[in-house]
Amino acid sequence: MSTASAPEGPFSVSTTINIAVIAGDGIGREVTVQAQKALDAAIAFEDASIAYRDFTLGADHYLETGELLHDATLEAIAESDAILFGAVGGVPGDPRLESVSIERSLLLRLRFAFDQYVNLRPARIHPGIGSVLGPDARADFVIVREGTEGAYSGSGGLVRGGTAQAIATEVSVNTAFGVERVLRYAFDLARTRDKRLTVVHKNNVLVHSGALWAQVQADVSAEYPDVTVDYLHVDAATIHLVQHPERFDVIVTDNLFGDILTDLAGAITGGIGLAASGNINPDDRFPSMFEPVHGSAPDIAGKQLADPTAAILSAAMLLDHVGLPVAGQRIRGAVGLDIEHRQDVGIRSTDQIGDSIAARIASAS
Ligand code: IPM
Ligand code: MN
Q1: What is the pTM of this model?
Q2: Rounded Cα–Cα distance for residues 62 and 41 (Å)
Q3: Considering 235, 284, 299, 303, which one is annotated as catalytic?
Q4: Considering only CA atoms, which residue is closest to atom 6 of ligand 1?
Q5: CA distance 231 to 212
Q6: What is the pLDDT of residues 250-291, one digit of tens each?
Q7: CA distance 180 to 324
Q8: C-alpha angle 272/277/283, rounded to 5°?
Q9: Which of 80, 84, 262, 359 is the most exposed place for a label (fewest CB within 10 A)?
Q10: Rg for the chain, CA atoms, rounded
Q11: Backbone φ and ψ of 104, nearest 5°
């Protein structure tokens, strides 16, 4: 963040938040514009301003230029205070994308290069939402998904590929260091909430990584006697998420289990169109990145059908992260009201939802 003293004196110090915008592909581009509208409306109340820098990346950009993510681009993004990310990915089955993984070469590269080891995914049944769990269902929890290790590490390979003797391995990497830091983050987060933490793994079968997670859980929880900790196997956790989502406050889990559980959490809390996320580098050595949980949805792209709410709520998380939680709360408040009144207004376009949320932010006192 850069601060510049205005000429009139030391009390008018204004802050500029430098945001790298990677809108990406498909509906990523449509929803990111709406998130920027919300950011602009919220920042107007602060002694701060936002400077955006657009980075054109994703499947379309790769097809046009051959760039997935050059080192120089990564370095330029690293200069920002935070990243607003839309979604990336081309049309499934496009033969030109067969030999590349946009997900790995771009999205996961950013998460790994910027050491975004906490993937924070709040899940809440807002008043007025028709949850698939029924009208009385309650849920307000946060999933802390590890972001740099596990099955996503890229360790493994294919031997004798294309033959009947092919061997494929995908190694789940769990380091004591990596597990400890994400657990500590989750304990700290639980302390700011209802002080209940659920660790999710599958330590009855994944005995090596499971034992490491259990050991670190035991060690770290001794330092947090005020936080109630329990443990669930991931399969059982899916049952509880559907049958008793109100039992959860903070959930912490590994990268792959977290990927799956956060889609489920989105589905039970109003759908993936509302699910926000932050890829956080808690040390602030690198920028953190805020993105809706959903993908680029090429099937509905360009039709103004996407719900921008998840992107807008992700922008609110960005503001929290850069030290403007009041502005973040202003966005969440406006989104809450918008959701509450959705049944009255009928079907709206992406732009219309973005405009009405921005208008609510602007009119909030
Ligand atoms: C998510 C997505 C990504 C993931 C994909 C696109 C790499 O599903 O953010 O949850 O698996 O993390
Ligand atoms: Mn996912």
Answers
A1: 0.95
A2: 33
A3: 235
A4: 103
A5: 14
A6: 999 999 999 999 999 999 999 999 999 999 999 999 999 999
A7: 28
A8: 170
A9: 359
A10: 21
A11: -75, -45
